[in-house]
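Work Package 3 (structural annotation) set out to generate three-dimensional models for the target panel prioritized at the project kickoff. During this period the team completed the workflow that converts sequence records into discrete structure tokens, so that structures can be stored uniformly alongside our sequence database. As a representative example, we reproduce one entry of 476 residues exactly as it appears in the project archive.
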Amino acid sequence: MGTSGATLVRPELTALGEWLDTTDAAELKRRQQSAEVTFRQLGITFAVYGDEDASERIIPFDIVPRVFLADEWSRLSAGLVQRVEAINAFLDDIYGARRIMKDGVLPEDLIFGNPQFRPEIAGMRPPHGIWAHICGIDLVRTGPDDFFVLEDNARTPSGVSYMLENREAMLRLCPELFRQFRVAAVDSYPDRLLQTMKSVAPQGTGSNPVCVVLTPGHFNSAYYEHSFLADSMGVELVEAADLVVDDDIVWMRTIAGRVKVDVIYRRIDDDYLDPLVFRPDSMLGVPGLIAAYAAGNVALLNAPGNGIADDKAIYSYMPEIVRYYTGAEAKLPNVQTFRCREPEALKYVLDHLGELVVKLVDGSGGYGMLVGPTASRDEIERFRAALIAEPHRYIAQPTLALSTVPTLVEQGLAPRHVDFRPFVLTGSKGIQVVPGGLTRVALREGSLVVNSSQGGGTKDSFVLLDNGPAHFQVQS
């Protein structure tokens, strides 16, 4: 389990294999359907933009958990901490001294010509110097000890609510598994997120800073997660109309009067965050918010401008970025990446389109992507024309032999490809790696696309413990 094409159960997971062998397929299906009914009743849905058949749907849930052994998790955690440290150092540098460009490690046009680089933010520094407070780093596995970073999500990573709800479902429906395995708990994530938020409050805020979650509203595809996290942390969920900036101070309107806001976990993209600085037609943002941020009167998680760390062209330089800021080789390597902006790489990609995965550098959600081996001739030719017209907008990667895990489908248990999104919190007291994460599974046979918007599902992710209680590992 866990490696590409594997059919034998790893010795450490014998109990899971026996559970699958002795639990009737109909019973597994009944439990899985029970979980999905609960998700629908709770409103755990997401919107599919442009889909006229169903504006909201649940993400399919799979009852068979994915398992990480303790030593595997220790290695992954060390690599995640290193990568997030480098991402924060990179963001602090490109909006400040720009040493990495002066030293010739990155070409200037890759930064200044990038639409995710926000010159309006240059020279500003977030409270405590932290830019990427909440990161979701997408990983793929290709062999027993081979993990690769597929992409970085440092802007507004989503999916943590599914991690938590999937665990709740497994505890309720499959309690026997938690008697067989010592599984690290993930239910303290909301408390840890709130601690992270409070830890980065501006200096002089006091011992109990006011924190809120800023949402664009219930039409957003991740609105359930916004409301879920606000409720779990015991903080207010606010929209733009609930906030006002007066003399560079952010205030929240309440029935008892105005309340000063110190920390905002914003789930709104930069473009819409403040109409006085970014898009003037935005009705989702708060006028004057960036001025309050620049004055040091409010902390924004994640910091404005850090979307450039999500860019797939930047991703292609992450080995160099990690080496530059940490002085060490990346513990979690990248997938081999061809930058189509470079003539030689473009020629190779055009010659091998049927073998590669091609992605927009600023794409997400599985959109704007070509999976060459499964694409039609027309799709390949459309991408060929797009690449020739705007090569700088694309990167390409080889089609990996992604790991598979047992998954319950209509015909019974079958291998399906997966990726994995662990979540990493960075506050003023250090970096915390959540001992779990979101396993996304491609439910269609042979598919490598795990995104929920493209028909993918989710699984619970068990991190097994050696000794001691389950806890977050904090590294400062």
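Confidence is low (pLDDT under 50) at residues 467-476.
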